[in-house]
Every structure is written in structure tokens, then in C-alpha cells.
Amino acid sequence: MNLYEYEGKSLFKKYGIRVPEGIFINSPQNTGNIEAFVEEVGEVAVKAQVLAGKRGKAGGVRFCKTAEGAELAVELLLNATIHGSESVGVLVEQRLSIVGEYYLSLTFDGWHRAPVVILSQQGGVEVEEMIQRHPEKLVIRPIDSIFGLPEWKAREIAAEAGFREERMRKMADLMVRAYRCFRENDIRLLEINPVIETPKGNFFAADAVVILDDDAMTRHRDFNYPPRGGLGRPLTERELQAKLIDQNDYRGVAGKYIELDGDIAMMSAGGGGSITNMDALISYGGRPANYTEYGGNPPAEKVEKLTRVVLSKPGLTACWHVGAVANNTRVDITMEGFIAGLRAIRPPFPIVVRRGGPGWEEARAALERAREELHLDMTIFGPEMPMTESAKVVIQKSEEYKNKLRSLSC
Amino acid sequence: MGILVDENTHVVVQGITGREGSFVTKEMLRYGTKVLAGVTPGKGGEVVHGVPVYDTLKQALAAHPTINTSLVYVPPLSAKDAAIEAISNGIQLINIITERVPIHDTADLYSYAVSKGARVVGPTSVGILTPGKCKLGPIGGTNPDFLFKPGRIGIVSKSGSMTSETAWVLCQAGFGISTALSVGGDVIACSTFADILPLFEADPETDAVVMFGEPGGVYEEQAAELVRKGGFTKPLIAFIAGKFVDAMPSGITFGHAGAIVERGMGSPRQKVEALRAAGVRVADVHHEVAKLVAEALAERVH
C-alpha angle A78/A83/A84, rounded to 5°? Predict the structure, then answer.
């Protein structure tokens, strides 16, 4: 889960990481204290709270010297959409004087298979630009996960990145605090760009990018972050419905659903299989209406709910229910859920199924009965048909259906 | 031969009394895998499909000193503890089937495994199978003989379901399997393609290897690097899934440190390019891997 800047900063504060003084405003009704705040701190930065990068360049940050200016900027940015991400509020912050801008992040790295700290004296610009302009100034160092980041190690890393004397000590202190925050909150990415040095020599986190580990949420019952998309756009109605499928039911996974703009509904099983099949469909010229994957032996009810979500999208011309020869997912049970969904929706468009695995023969027989009973145009393949080859069949079926619709409308 | 598991693999299942753990134990026993013991804290003394259960791994080892392999089938937040328990007790091969293990936990257990010289495969592995000798984990499901015929092609895959699908595609083309395994698709994989390929290189009963990669990370690029440097000289056939991700309308527009650590790697297109540049045959659509294996082997004979 990605945190908004204001959420990330309030987490930072708990670890003694300095952040600029600020107020968070999430509706035009509670702008009352802006005037007093601007009077107290002087010039402010008004920042749209979005889950998108390159916010500054897109006009999502305004600097204001007066309360009136700040109020205007707040009004403007409260409903802003930046790179497809809708603002959930604005952060009004004291604008600090700057003598230095640095870059600090903590994340995981496949080269070291460990947490890494990334540090540079050239912060405050886009990361891509930083890599291009000053790759030699980026210091990337692995951290022994069990041992953690002790102060001496942080001092070494700061020194390697070119920080000297008091700056070195301050950066090391910030790094140690940031690492504790990263570790204790199960964060996958913690990025501060820029770290600001003020004329008094204090280091502040001027921005906060935090991605929490969804797999660790169950050990952070105290987290209270409202649900959100991670796609650079709000969740659609169907995506929200799909998310509910896995809530409070840990048996298997069936709630991954991303709406796309094509016309072939995807009911796909298995993570690796699902992306393999998306590739196959697209490479043969088909356009997927959604991405989905279910797996881990989910109960029939979950697959039924997912089927209803997937088939409810308007404008579908075919459905491809496809998965590899399963290892441990009981395909008779998952197909039972699919059939229940078909019974509820009764799709007029063609369906192509390709599956195999434990209980497949029972599943095939049940699908054949449902085809008869519900008068469906359903083509059923077992393992005898190569999985990705069945993409061609569903595309052909979809074309036939489109032609039929066209001839009917003439 | 094959790699990692064979008739001398003596297994303890950590988490044997769980729904999935007990089901998979039954499947493994039916296949002929030597499952000697199980561990579930608090359930010592129980018996699961004829396999005795102990409270601790130490007790299991005391009663069955030939155990050399652990299958970890515990809930996600217990996986680190179980794996470190196994490593601490000197188990040399640990296969973690558990999915959704927190990444900080995986980093801890990987660091510990490296310091003790133990090999961990997973998390999010579907298991390891050497046909006719040993099935470790749910790989192949209830009917592994249908998918995995004995033969001379190795499979190493990030995805579990695609391990079986790849075996099936090869089987239909007349190829059998030396050993197949999935290493999982997590950001930290305790065994990577580059860790596994040298084992296949050293295995006289493997003629070629098929690898299945996915978007993200640098493990496919590392495999390409290994081949380029001569660390793997047998024919390598790859399929990289997820090319559509590059074409997705929005994608993740957030979290740039990944761009630094991956330095222009990580996307399926870049992985395919790196592998092809190293001389690896890469299939455009998955079922074409069988044809590429046949081509590679034919070329080798001439």
C-alpha cells in the first residue's frame, strides 16, 4: 500500500525525523486555520496529496506568501488530478530556507537480496535525472537484515557519499532513524527526496514516499489507512467489489481485478499463468477487458463473486476462462463457482475454457451440463489444448460474435 | 540424478497438521517421497497419514537422524521462524511453499541461510520434483506422473502453475524432465535462476533447461550474465511473461528507488533482450518453448 505524503510524514515524526510544520486539509469546509498558520510560519508550500510522482512539474505544488494566496491554492489543489491520481487533500507546509538538498531511500535490492540504503548529495531532482547526471554520486549499500543499521555503519555510508563532519553525523542520524521506521513498519520503500538542510544545519524530510508491505499488514493492526488503488487512478466500482471478495476470507485469492479497456473478459487462474495468457491474447490481436488472477485453492463462492464482477463489464464480446494444469487448486470446485456466476449472468457472448488439474474431468462434465442447461456458446478445452494456443480460439469467437451483432443491427 | 531432490531425500514437513500441509503430505507419500516426520508446535504425538508429528524440529531429528530436507508449509508470519529453526538444526535444503511472506522476514532468513551455508528454495515455491524419485511440495498436484515423465530437460520457474504447464507442453512434444522446480517470484528469492542453473550444468542427466521468468527484479538478467560468462553452457530456453505490463495504460507511477537498484532492468522487454544477447533462445508465446528445445537439441547433435 502506498502512503500519501502527509501519512508518511506523520509516521516519520514518530521516529524523530524532522518534517516541516504543516496542516492537512481534506475539505473546503476546514480551511479556517490557514490564515493563522501562514501568519505564524510565513511563506508556505501547498501540496496536493496524490499517489503519483512528478507532482511538482504537473503543478501540484504551489508556493504562497500570503494567507489569501494559500487559500486560493488550497481550493485549486483540493480537487486536482495529477497524472490520473485524484487528490485526497492538501498539505500546507512551512517553506524552509535551503542550503542543501540530498536524496535518501531504503528499499530492497535483488542484487544483494537485502535491504539497501541509497544516498546522494544531489537530491531534489527526479530520480531518473539523478541517475543520468550523477550516477557516480549515488551510494548504494546493502544492510545486513538481521544486524540492522548501526550508527557506525550509517556514518561510513554517509562519509562514502561525501558528507563531512557535522553533516556526516546528521545524515547518519537521519539514516538510522529512517531505517528503524522502515524496519518496524514493514516498509518496502521509504524515499525522502529531498532531504533539506536548513541554514541552522538541521535536516528535514521535505517529501515522503512510503510503500508498506501488504503481506505484513496482519502484524500491524494499529494501521488505519483507508483503502486505495495503486494504479495512478481511483478504483473503479468493479475493482472495489473485487477487493471485497478477499476481505475476511483467507482461503485462496480471488480479488485481484484491474479494469482495462478491451472487450474480452479474462477469468484467469494463477499469477504466472495469468500474465502469460494476457501476453498471448494481446500478441494474437485480442484486447483484454480486464486483468485478473485467482488461485491458492479458493472456495467456489469466491470464484462465483469474481465471475460476476468480471462478466458485469458492459460491451464484452467473449470470455476466456483460462489457467494452467493446476498443481493444487481443485478445478472442480473453482469451476463450480464459475458455473454459478454464469447461471446468474447468462452471458450472450461466447465463452472459451481451457484448464486442467485436480478434479478436471468432473469440472469438464459440469461445464458441459451447464452449457446445455443455460444454452451457452461455450467451448471447453482440457490439457490437450496448449494453454496459450486457446487465445486464438477466443479471439476468433469474439470476432464471430461482433460480426453477428453488426449484422443484427443492420 | 537430477538436482536437489532424489531417492535419498528424507523429508520433514514443518506445518504438517495444517489443511494444505496434511494434504500435500499424503500426495508426497503416494508418490514415494520419504516423509519421515512432521513438526507442528503443540501437536507433538499426533500422526498425519502415518507420519509422526513432533513439537520441535530438534525432537524430529533426534528420532529420525537421516532427515536432510525440510518442507515449510506454515502460515506467512511463521515462515521465517520455521526456516531459521530448520537452518539452526543443520538442515541443508529448505523449501518454503508459503506465499506472502513479509519481505523483511525473507531478508532475515536469507541472510541467515547464507551465513550457515544452507540452501533455501522459495518462498512462494510450488516445490521440487525429480520424476520417479521425489516430489517435494504440491508440484504436479494429485497426478504428477501425468505431467512429469522422466527425461533430460530441467525446468526452473518463478511461477508455480507455469512449472507444471511448461512440463506439460514439453511432455506433449515428447520430452521428459530431469528435475523441475519453482523458485518463486518474490523480490527476494532465496534461490535464483543463477543459483540453480549451475546445478543443472553439473547434472549429467540434464541436456537442456527451460526457464520461466516474470516482470520485475534482476534475476533473469543475472541468468543472462551467467550464460554470457560461460557459467552455463547447455542449451537454455526461456519464456518471459508479462510483456503486456509495459503496455498497460498507467502502471505504477510511484516509488522510484526501484529504478535505481534495477538500473534499466526489470521490464520483460529488457529481460528478453538481455537473454537473447547472451544467446538464450526466448519463446514469444509460451507453448513455443517445446519447439525451441527441439531445435536446440537438434543443433547440438550436429
Answer: 75
Contact A84/B253, CB-based, under 8 Å?
yes
Q: Range of B268's domain?
A: 10-301
Contact status, residue A305 vs residue A245, Cβ threshold 8 Å = yes
- Beta strand A264-268 pairing with A253-259: unpaired
Distance between CA A329 and CA B20 in Å, rounded?
11
pLDDT of amino acid A90: 95
Report the CATH number at residue B261.
Answer: 3.40.50.261
Q: Are A178 and A106 in contact (CB under 8 A)?
A: yes
- Reported ipTM: the value is 0.92
Class of the A100-215 domain?
A: alpha beta
Are A390 and B286 a contacting pair, CB within 8 Å? no
Determine, yes or no, domain membership for B73. Answer: yes
Q: In the structure grid, which three cell numbers stand for residue B60, read together?
A: 524430529
Is residue B2 one of the residues assigned to a domain? no
What's the pLDDT tens digit per position in A30-42? 777 899 999 999 9
Catalytic residue (one of B10, B49, B64, B256) = B256
CA atoms of A153 and B71, how far apart (whole Å): 36
Query: Annotated catalytic, B302?
Result: no
Residue pair A282/A395 in contact (Cβ under 8 Å)? The answer is no
Between A47 and A247, name the one with better pLDDT: A47
C-beta of residue B224 within 8 angstroms of C-beta of residue B163:
no
How is domain A21-94 classified at the CATH fold level? Dna Ligase; domain 1 (3.30.1490)
Q: Which CATH class is domain A237-409?
A: alpha beta
pLDDT tens digits along A162-196: 999 999 999 999 999 999 999 999 999 999 999 99
Domain locations in chain A as residue ranges: 21-94, 100-215, 237-409
Among B196, B270, B189, B281, CA closest to B232: B196
Contacts of B261 in chain A (CB under 8 A): 107-111, 116, 118, 140
The number of folded domains in chain B is 1
CB A121 within 8 A of CB A157: no
